[in-house]
Amino acid sequence: MDKLVNLTTQDGVAVITIDNPPVNALSPGVPEGLLAALDVAEEDPLVRAIVVIGGGRTFIAGADIKELELAASGRGNGPPEFHAILASIEDTSKPVVMAIHGTALGGGNEVAMAGHYRVAVRDAQIGQPEVNLGIIPGAEGTQRLPRLVGVAAAVDLCVSGKPIRAPEALKLGLIDRVIEGDLLTGAMAFAREIAEKGGALRKTRELSDKLGSEFVDASIFAAGRDQARKTRRNMLAPLKAVDAIEAAVNLPFDEGCKKEREIFAECLASDQARALIHAFFAERAVAKIPDIPKDTAVYNIRQAAIIGAGTMGGGIAMACANAGISVLLKEVEQAALDRGVATIRKNYENSVKKGRFSQEVMDQRMALIHPQLTYDGFGQADLIIEAAFESMELKKRIFAEIDQIAKPDCMLASNTSTLDIDAIASVTSRPRMVVGLHFFSPANVMRLVEIVRGKATSKEVVMTALALAKKLGKVGVVVGNCWGFVGNRMMLPYMREAQFLVEEGATPEQVDRALTNFGMAMGIFAVDDMGGIDVQWRVREERKHMEKPGLRTPLMLGKLFHSERLGQKTGAGWYRYDENRKPIPDPEVHALIEKTAREGGIERRHITDDEIIERCVYIMINEGAKILEEGYAQRAADIDVIYLTGYGFPAYRGGPMWYADTVGLKQVRGRIREFHQKHGEFWEPAPLLNKLADQGETFASYDAAREHAMAVA
Ligand code: 3H9
């Protein structure tokens, strides 16, 4: 027997255990092992029923995405093929019970559905998350799922990609029993019950009672496609998943499976699938720091303390409380503290109203947050996060203070979004304990945390920050200490270029529309207005000394600032805002732009959406290439993760650097050269971009070569 799959027999029940850590993916050898084990169990006269279970922490978490990656890029032996194993499971003459814990995702659930019965522990998660990878279920899932749960639930599961817990799966008919206590014991008892009852075995593929009628299903499919267009803008796979489920209704099982295979192959060959698979692995690679061993000891963070109960401090406090970490939340004035706590309470109340969690959970979380005006208790904190106003002077003062109070092994973090972490650390007696933790607003929601590694930050502190990010349900990306780190350093030229575009002839709404059509979560001017024109203005003023003299500066930002159009907070910025904070294009701004351009001697012209995308995105890519070469990001893929999880870059484009690879670096560099000629110095191609374009390489190949070099060294 292949060691990826083991077989034991106990009291007439064969137990087949899949043992392919860490997540029991259906890698080569697993389906074959499963098939061989089934054969043995089928032949053994002493076996009356079969249980399939996952070893370790989970049932099967899906097909092996590495194999899918190879197939998507035309390497490997094509996509994996599971028909034979699924048919064998279903045709076994003895009852096959699938015993689920952890996750049964994608191919994992598809294998489970081929079993005659499914049981699961209460917190098991079951789902078809393939759309997150730009594909559809490709192991007959779109055909078996509607037969078990009905068409509407199948559409919802496949379009949303969201897993459900066992009790809901039971309600839907996806599983047959929730097991309390030990899963294997419960599953074996269930298997014996079924064997004793006898009778014909239920094959999922032969069920049809939940498939509904053509008339009713038509409206479900229409609603599913609407859901797909709304929640997964511009994405191919969710719409295709609906097509495949439609085939389950309209075609016999085998033909439906054939149709599913065709659609699966089409999706897998798409740029979207390649980008999303890249994003999946990139998100997991960020936690690997080349010069820090994986098993480096980390500090245990049980008590956190936060300085500043404003938007950021409050959001970080919520993120900590949500993860069960107790937080001291300090402000300087009672009124500001009360405001901060009231906002936290309101956010939690909204979540309770929306049914995200119960009042009891909210009460537990509120109880973990301790508002205060003093440093009381900070001496016991394992982590202190400063989330005060973005001013070096203020931050230095705070760090000097907390250095006096904090215990020696307390981590000291700043939530600065642009400032020099080494300068901040320099006022403490322990720069090795100082790190940047750049959360994104709203910090209780946004997944990204940039972990800024100063020149003295210890390896233990970096690894603790990564572990903390994971505990908070976030993605921590380690970045170097340069102005704006990675995300904001790239954002600055992006914002600047967008402003140049409106001065040259576009309108804010045209730029934003082009960007959202490209897939950005929000247009850049809507982002500006949300963050505040005053904030951007101050950042620009603070940076002035860093800019080369004589470089062109957008004129409009100052105009808006001085006319107190500060964005959403004043009801007007690049847009006007109604009471629901809906941005409304504003003729006053248009007039101001035209006047400003006239005064600045800028000739306005027609600007195409293509130019908007190229100038906004390529300027980011060029800056990203500089950041990468200067070593402030470890990999191009890290930059992608930052933009996907913190800046609303469309996941199906894989991030800015991956997108550049997709367009082709020669092509990107060609346009950058043209912009350089036309628009000046900002556009000088990054040396790394030039090098890779000349060599016909990509950012992905650059990452791979560096990883290889490090592995060899
Ligand atoms: C599919 O099934 C297609 C089929 O319909 C049809 C095909 C024909 N494959 O996330 P973690 C690795 S598509 C390969 O940090 P967690 C991961 O890279 C698939 N590797 O753990 C990481 O490796 P490393 C549908 C995988 O506890 C390690 O496992 N299924 C796979 O935070 C730990 O991962 C999915 O989309 C895989 N399927 O979360 C589920 N899964 O340590 C994808 C994980 O070297 N997986 N790895 O960096 C997940 O959502 C999460 O991994 C899971 C665990 C929730 C399972």
Structure characterization notes:
By secondary structure, the protein is an alpha/beta fold. Helix content is 51%, strand content 11%. The protein has 30 helices and 19 strands. The strands form four sheets. Strands 12-11-10-13-14-15-16-17 form an eight-stranded mixed β-sheet, sandwiched between helices. The longest helix is centred in the last third of the chain and has 22 residues, at 609-630. The protein is globular, with a radius of gyration of 28 Å. The mean pLDDT is 96.
Radius of gyration (Å)? 28 Å
Strand order of the largest sheet: 12-11-10-13-14-15-16-17
The count of β-strands is: 19
Q: From the helix content, strand content and strand pairing, which structural class follows?
A: alpha/beta
Low-confidence residue ranges: none
Helix content: 40-55%
Keywords for this structure?
binds (S)-3-Hydroxyhexanoyl-CoA; eight-stranded mixed sheet; single chain; 713 residues; alpha/beta
In short:
This protein has an eight-stranded mixed sheet, sandwiched between helices. A six-stranded mixed sheet has the order 1-2-3-4-6-9, with helices on both faces. Strands 5-7-8 form a three-stranded mixed sheet.
Give the helices and strands, then pairings.
Elements: E1 5-10, E2 13-18, H1 30-43, E3 49-54, H2 65-72, H3 83-91, E4 96-100, E5 103-105, H4 107-114, E6 117-121, E7 125-127, H5 141-149, H6 151-160, E8 164-165, H7 166-172, E9 177-179, H8 183-197, H9 214-231, H10 237-250, H11 253-268, H12 271-285, E10 303-307, H13 311-322, E11 326-330, H14 334-353, H15 359-368, E12 369-372, E13 383-386, H16 392-405, E14 411-414, H17 421-425, E15 434-439, E16 448-452, H18 459-471, E17 475-479, H19 487-504, H20 508-518, H21 524-531, H22 533-543, H23 556-562, E18 576-577, E19 583-584, H24 587-599, H25 609-630, H26 636-646, H27 656-663, H28 665-679, H29 687-695, H30 699-712
Parallel strand pairs: 2-3, 3-4, 4-6, 5-7, 6-9, 10-11, 10-13, 11-12, 13-14, 14-15, 16-17
Antiparallel strand pairs: 1-2, 7-8, 15-16, 18-19
Helix pairs in contact: 2-12, 4-5, 5-6, 5-10, 6-9, 6-10, 9-10, 10-11, 12-26, 13-14, 19-25, 20-25, 22-23, 25-28, 28-29
Bound molecules: (S)-3-Hydroxyhexanoyl-CoA.
The site of (S)-3-Hydroxyhexanoyl-CoA has 25 residues, from helix 2, strand 5 and helix 4.
